[in-house]
Protein backbone atom coordinates (compact mmCIF):
# COMPACT_ATOMS: atom_id res chain seq x y z
CA UNK A 1 0.00 0.00 0.00
CA UNK A 2 1.31 3.49 -0.84
CA UNK A 3 1.70 6.04 1.93
CA UNK A 4 1.20 9.78 2.37
CA UNK A 5 2.74 11.87 5.12
CA UNK A 6 0.50 14.64 6.45
CA UNK A 7 1.15 17.58 8.76
CA UNK A 8 -0.85 16.71 11.85
CA UNK A 9 -2.70 13.51 12.58
CA UNK A 10 -5.60 11.55 11.13
CA UNK A 11 -8.84 13.54 11.21
CA UNK A 12 -7.09 16.78 10.20
CA UNK A 13 -7.89 18.72 7.04
CA UNK A 14 -4.70 17.29 5.55
CA UNK A 15 -6.25 13.85 6.00
CA UNK A 16 -9.43 15.08 4.28
CA UNK A 17 -7.24 16.37 1.44
CA UNK A 18 -5.69 12.89 1.02
CA UNK A 19 -9.19 11.33 0.94
CA UNK A 20 -10.30 13.80 -1.72
CA UNK A 21 -7.25 13.18 -3.91
CA UNK A 22 -7.14 9.39 -3.72
CA UNK A 23 -10.93 8.75 -3.50
CA UNK A 24 -11.42 5.01 -2.98
CA UNK A 25 -7.73 4.10 -3.26
CA UNK A 26 -6.52 2.88 0.16
CA UNK A 27 -3.52 4.87 1.35
CA UNK A 28 -1.49 4.55 4.52
CA UNK A 29 -1.52 7.88 6.38
CA UNK A 30 1.69 8.82 8.19
CA UNK A 31 1.20 11.43 10.95
CA UNK A 32 3.98 14.02 11.00
CA UNK A 33 4.35 16.94 13.44
CA UNK A 34 5.51 19.74 11.09
CA UNK A 35 5.70 20.62 7.40
CA UNK A 36 9.47 20.11 7.61
CA UNK A 37 9.04 16.55 8.91
CA UNK A 38 6.52 15.87 6.11
CA UNK A 39 9.23 16.87 3.63
CA UNK A 40 11.79 14.67 5.44
CA UNK A 41 9.38 11.69 5.38
CA UNK A 42 9.20 12.04 1.58
CA UNK A 43 12.94 12.64 1.05
CA UNK A 44 13.95 9.72 3.30
CA UNK A 45 11.47 7.35 1.66
CA UNK A 46 9.37 6.87 4.82
CA UNK A 47 6.38 8.02 2.74
CA UNK A 48 5.70 7.84 -0.99
CA UNK A 49 4.06 11.24 -0.95
CA UNK A 50 3.53 14.31 1.21
CA UNK A 51 0.35 16.39 1.40
CA UNK A 52 1.08 20.06 2.11
CA UNK A 53 -1.27 23.07 2.51
CA UNK A 54 0.00 25.97 0.39
CA UNK A 55 -2.69 28.65 0.64
CA UNK A 56 -6.09 29.43 2.10
CA UNK A 57 -8.68 31.56 0.33
CA UNK A 58 -9.16 33.78 3.43
CA UNK A 59 -5.79 33.72 5.21
CA UNK A 60 -3.49 33.63 2.15
CA UNK A 61 -0.26 31.79 1.33
CA UNK A 62 1.84 29.66 3.69
CA UNK A 63 5.12 31.21 2.51
CA UNK A 64 7.62 28.88 4.27
CA UNK A 65 6.14 25.93 2.38
CA UNK A 66 7.24 27.36 -0.97
CA UNK A 67 10.80 27.45 0.31
CA UNK A 68 10.59 23.89 1.67
CA UNK A 69 9.53 22.60 -1.76
CA UNK A 70 12.39 24.31 -3.60
CA UNK A 71 15.07 23.77 -0.93
CA UNK A 72 14.49 20.00 -0.93
CA UNK A 73 13.84 19.69 -4.67
CA UNK A 74 10.37 18.16 -4.31
CA UNK A 75 8.04 17.62 -7.26
CA UNK A 76 4.39 18.71 -7.26
CA UNK A 77 2.40 15.86 -8.75
CA UNK A 78 -1.12 16.86 -7.75
CA UNK A 79 -3.36 19.52 -6.28
CA UNK A 80 -6.34 19.47 -3.93
CA UNK A 81 -8.73 22.37 -3.37
CA UNK A 82 -10.63 21.47 -0.22
CA UNK A 83 -13.71 23.26 1.10
CA UNK A 84 -12.88 23.93 4.76
CA UNK A 85 -15.86 23.57 7.05
CA UNK A 86 -15.08 24.34 10.69
CA UNK A 87 -17.14 23.02 13.59
CA UNK A 88 -16.84 23.54 17.34
CA UNK A 89 -16.14 20.14 18.93
CA UNK A 90 -16.12 19.06 22.59
CA UNK A 91 -16.80 16.06 24.84
CA UNK A 92 -20.38 14.75 24.91
CA UNK A 93 -22.38 16.63 27.58
CA UNK A 94 -20.60 19.96 27.04
CA UNK A 95 -22.59 23.05 26.04
CA UNK A 96 -21.58 26.49 24.75
CA UNK A 97 -21.97 27.71 28.37
CA UNK A 98 -19.64 25.10 29.85
CA UNK A 99 -16.74 25.88 27.47
CA UNK A 100 -13.95 28.14 28.74
CA UNK A 101 -11.08 27.29 26.35
CA UNK A 102 -10.71 26.67 22.61
CA UNK A 103 -7.51 25.11 21.33
CA UNK A 104 -6.87 24.54 17.65
CA UNK A 105 -4.66 25.34 14.63
CA UNK A 106 -3.98 29.11 14.26
CA UNK A 107 -5.51 29.07 10.76
CA UNK A 108 -8.74 27.71 12.21
CA UNK A 109 -8.80 30.48 14.85
CA UNK A 110 -8.23 33.04 12.10
CA UNK A 111 -10.99 31.63 9.93
CA UNK A 112 -13.59 31.65 12.75
CA UNK A 113 -12.90 35.10 14.26
CA UNK A 114 -16.50 36.39 14.01
CA UNK A 115 -17.91 33.37 15.83
CA UNK A 116 -15.22 33.48 18.54
CA UNK A 117 -15.81 37.21 19.16
CA UNK A 118 -19.25 36.29 20.52
CA UNK A 119 -17.54 34.46 23.42
CA UNK A 120 -14.95 36.94 24.77
CA UNK A 121 -14.39 34.95 27.97
CA UNK A 122 -13.02 31.93 26.09
CA UNK A 123 -9.26 31.42 26.27
CA UNK A 124 -7.92 30.83 22.72
CA UNK A 125 -4.84 28.64 22.25
CA UNK A 126 -2.88 28.00 19.04
CA UNK A 127 -1.83 24.38 18.57
CA UNK A 128 -0.19 22.24 15.88
CA UNK A 129 -3.29 20.90 14.15
CA UNK A 130 -7.03 20.57 14.63
CA UNK A 131 -7.13 16.77 14.92
CA UNK A 132 -4.43 16.51 17.60
CA UNK A 133 -6.54 18.86 19.75
CA UNK A 134 -9.61 16.69 19.17
CA UNK A 135 -7.58 13.57 20.08
CA UNK A 136 -6.30 15.14 23.33
CA UNK A 137 -9.76 16.32 24.40
CA UNK A 138 -11.02 12.76 23.83
CA UNK A 139 -8.14 10.83 25.39
CA UNK A 140 -7.56 13.14 28.39
CA UNK A 141 -11.31 13.74 28.87
CA UNK A 142 -10.67 17.50 28.89
CA UNK A 143 -13.71 19.18 30.44
CA UNK A 144 -14.60 22.76 29.42
CA UNK A 145 -12.27 22.56 26.41
CA UNK A 146 -13.36 22.70 22.77
CA UNK A 147 -11.51 22.54 19.48
CA UNK A 148 -12.34 23.78 16.01
CA UNK A 149 -12.05 21.10 13.37
CA UNK A 150 -13.60 18.78 10.82
CA UNK A 151 -16.58 16.40 11.05
CA UNK A 152 -14.07 13.62 10.37
CA UNK A 153 -12.23 14.56 13.61
CA UNK A 154 -15.55 14.59 15.52
CA UNK A 155 -16.30 11.04 14.30
CA UNK A 156 -12.80 9.69 14.86
CA UNK A 157 -12.40 11.09 18.38
CA UNK A 158 -16.02 10.76 19.53
CA UNK A 159 -16.63 14.44 20.08
CA UNK A 160 -19.93 16.27 19.84
CA UNK A 161 -20.52 19.16 17.48
CA UNK A 162 -21.54 22.16 19.61
CA UNK A 163 -21.78 24.59 16.69
CA UNK A 164 -21.70 23.79 12.97
CA UNK A 165 -20.09 25.75 10.14
CA UNK A 166 -18.59 28.48 12.29
CA UNK A 167 -16.14 29.82 9.68
CA UNK A 168 -16.60 33.53 8.88
CA UNK A 169 -16.94 33.13 5.13
CA UNK A 170 -18.84 30.19 3.67
CA UNK A 171 -16.49 30.03 0.66
CA UNK A 172 -13.46 28.92 2.65
CA UNK A 173 -10.98 26.79 0.68
CA UNK A 174 -7.46 25.53 1.32
CA UNK A 175 -5.27 24.46 -1.57
CA UNK A 176 -2.80 21.63 -1.03
CA UNK A 177 0.06 20.20 -3.11
CA UNK A 178 0.74 16.49 -3.33
CA UNK A 179 4.52 16.15 -3.27
CA UNK A 180 6.92 13.43 -4.36
CA UNK A 181 10.70 13.00 -4.23
CA UNK A 182 10.72 11.81 -7.84
CA UNK A 183 8.88 13.30 -10.82
CA UNK A 184 5.77 11.48 -12.09
CA UNK A 185 4.54 11.90 -15.63
CA UNK A 186 0.91 13.02 -15.48
CA UNK A 187 -0.82 12.49 -18.84
CA UNK A 188 -2.93 15.41 -20.09
CA UNK A 189 -1.90 17.66 -17.21
CA UNK A 190 -3.92 20.88 -16.98
CA UNK A 191 -1.78 22.91 -14.61
CA UNK A 192 1.91 23.67 -14.09
CA UNK A 193 3.90 25.27 -11.28
CA UNK A 194 6.86 27.36 -12.42
CA UNK A 195 9.65 28.77 -10.27
CA UNK A 196 11.91 31.49 -11.66
CA UNK A 197 13.94 34.61 -10.97
CA UNK A 198 14.11 37.81 -12.95
CA UNK A 199 16.80 40.49 -12.71
CA UNK A 200 16.24 43.99 -11.29
CA UNK A 201 15.64 45.63 -14.64
CA UNK A 202 12.51 47.47 -15.62
CA UNK A 203 9.81 45.24 -16.99
CA UNK A 204 11.64 41.92 -16.47
CA UNK A 205 8.67 40.32 -14.67
CA UNK A 206 6.26 41.92 -17.14
CA UNK A 207 8.16 40.19 -19.98
CA UNK A 208 7.50 36.78 -18.43
CA UNK A 209 3.83 37.59 -17.87
CA UNK A 210 3.47 38.88 -21.45
CA UNK A 211 4.92 35.66 -22.85
CA UNK A 212 2.39 33.65 -20.82
CA UNK A 213 -0.42 35.90 -22.12
CA UNK A 214 0.84 35.59 -25.71
CA UNK A 215 0.55 31.80 -25.52
CA UNK A 216 -2.82 32.02 -23.74
CA UNK A 217 -1.62 30.55 -20.44
CA UNK A 218 -3.87 31.73 -17.62
CA UNK A 219 -1.97 32.52 -14.41
CA UNK A 220 -4.00 31.26 -11.43
CA UNK A 221 -1.51 32.34 -8.79
CA UNK A 222 1.74 34.30 -8.59
CA UNK A 223 3.78 34.48 -5.41
CA UNK A 224 7.07 36.22 -4.72
CA UNK A 225 9.37 34.58 -2.18
CA UNK A 226 12.57 36.15 -0.81
CA UNK A 227 15.66 34.69 -2.49
CA UNK A 228 17.89 33.10 0.16
CA UNK A 229 21.32 34.73 0.35
CA UNK A 230 20.19 38.03 -1.17
CA UNK A 231 18.74 41.21 0.33
CA UNK A 232 15.29 42.11 -0.98
CA UNK A 233 15.61 40.04 -4.10
CA UNK A 234 12.81 37.67 -4.96
CA UNK A 235 12.04 34.49 -6.76
CA UNK A 236 8.59 33.92 -8.25
CA UNK A 237 6.20 31.01 -8.17
CA UNK A 238 3.57 31.00 -10.89
CA UNK A 239 0.80 28.44 -11.24
CA UNK A 240 -0.67 28.41 -14.73
CA UNK A 241 -3.46 26.62 -16.54
CA UNK A 242 -2.16 24.61 -19.47
CA UNK A 243 -4.42 23.44 -22.31
CA UNK A 244 -4.30 19.70 -21.42
CA UNK A 245 -3.54 17.32 -24.27
CA UNK A 246 -1.71 19.43 -26.84
CA UNK A 247 1.09 21.13 -24.93
CA UNK A 248 2.77 22.83 -27.93
CA UNK A 249 1.89 26.38 -26.81
CA UNK A 250 2.97 25.65 -23.26
CA UNK A 251 6.36 24.32 -24.42
CA UNK A 252 6.87 27.34 -26.70
CA UNK A 253 6.03 29.68 -23.80
CA UNK A 254 8.59 27.91 -21.57
CA UNK A 255 11.28 28.20 -24.26
CA UNK A 256 10.74 31.94 -24.52
CA UNK A 257 10.56 32.48 -20.77
CA UNK A 258 13.92 30.72 -20.32
CA UNK A 259 15.60 33.58 -22.21
CA UNK A 260 14.20 36.26 -19.90
CA UNK A 261 14.74 34.60 -16.50
CA UNK A 262 17.77 33.92 -14.29
CA UNK A 263 16.60 30.33 -13.91
CA UNK A 264 13.38 28.55 -14.66
CA UNK A 265 12.37 25.33 -12.91
CA UNK A 266 9.19 23.39 -13.51
CA UNK A 267 8.11 22.25 -10.05
CA UNK A 268 5.27 20.17 -11.38
CA UNK A 269 2.82 19.42 -14.18
CA UNK A 270 -0.38 17.98 -12.80
CA UNK A 271 -4.18 17.91 -12.95
CA UNK A 272 -5.98 21.02 -11.71
CA UNK A 273 -8.52 20.45 -8.92
CA UNK A 274 -11.58 22.46 -9.83
CA UNK A 275 -13.63 24.01 -7.01
CA UNK A 276 -16.91 22.13 -6.64
CA UNK A 277 -19.48 24.08 -4.62
O1 LIG B 1 -5.01 21.47 11.42
C1 LIG B 1 -5.45 20.89 10.41
O2 LIG B 1 -6.42 20.14 10.46
C2 LIG B 1 -4.78 21.09 9.12
O3 LIG B 1 -4.90 20.27 8.25
C3 LIG B 1 -3.95 22.33 8.93
C4 LIG B 1 -4.64 23.47 8.17
C5 LIG B 1 -3.54 24.46 7.66
O4 LIG B 1 -2.37 24.11 7.59
O5 LIG B 1 -3.92 25.58 7.27
C6 LIG B 1 -5.33 23.01 6.97
C7 LIG B 1 -6.48 23.59 6.53
C8 LIG B 1 -7.21 24.63 7.30
O6 LIG B 1 -7.01 25.86 6.63
C9 LIG B 1 -6.70 24.76 8.68
C10 LIG B 1 -5.55 24.16 9.08
TrEMBL record:
Residues 193-271 form the ACT domain. Pfam families: PDT (PF00800). Keywords: Amino-acid biosynthesis, Aromatic amino acid biosynthesis, Lyase, Phenylalanine biosynthesis. It catalyses: prephenate + H(+) = 3-phenylpyruvate + CO2 + H2O. One of its GO terms (cellular component) is cytoplasm. Residues 3-181 form the Prephenate dehydratase domain. Its EC number is 4.2.1.51. One of its GO terms (molecular function) is prephenate dehydratase activity. This is prephenate dehydratase. It comes from Apibacter mensalis.
Amino acid sequence: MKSVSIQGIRGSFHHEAVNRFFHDQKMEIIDSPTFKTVVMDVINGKANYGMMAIENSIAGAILPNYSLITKYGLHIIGEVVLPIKHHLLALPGETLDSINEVRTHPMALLQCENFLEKYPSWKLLSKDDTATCAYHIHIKKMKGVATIGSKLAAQMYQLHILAENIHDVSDNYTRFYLLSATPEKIENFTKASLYFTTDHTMGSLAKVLNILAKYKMNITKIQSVPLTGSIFQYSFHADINTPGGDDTNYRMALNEIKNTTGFLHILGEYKEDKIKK
